[in-house]
Task: structure prediction
Amino acid sequence: MPRIFSFGASTAQGSKDDEGGFIARIGKRLQQEGLGHAENYGIGGHSTDDMLPRLPDLPIHDNSDIAIVTLGINDVPRAPDPRPDRRVPLDRHDANVHTIVENLKGRCRVLYVTQYPVNYDQRGLDKQLVESYVNVGRQVAHEVGVEILDIHPEIDDAKYAAFIHEDGMHFNSDGHAYIADRIWDHLTASGHFD
Result:
């Protein structure tokens, strides 16, 4: 039976959701249907620089495991920025995402989930720059040959209003429920539970 785990930062961790985020919701459904279990390896605030040293310690069992990778927003420069030293330039972000996705693909199955839109003005982020990071992640996933769930273009104005927390940066509980359903539907349609 598959073990599904999240890897990334606050979205992977389930920040702003009192039910533990999309990964906990998927885990509950896996257990209810007798299909496996889920584990959470998201750490809020982590950049891709922070994630690289964590890769060797991930307890991946075999290629029946499924990694749900969602990351990137913490890499993007912003203004004003209380922690500019934490940001990761786009070229290094590209290299880091390559390393992360290639490492995981060599050890298990991978589903790469693109970063969703945020409140750019509220968070001091440039929309075009954020989209450059999103595009790099999407391109890396294509190049490495892992499955992609492209959430970014799905979050239109109505979904943004319904699913993004008032902090302008994270999914709220309804957003985590939405992404859990989208991931579940993707994995089911891809035959991961057969």
Summary: The chain has one domain: 3-189. The chain has a mean pLDDT of 96. The two ends are 10 Å apart (CA to CA).
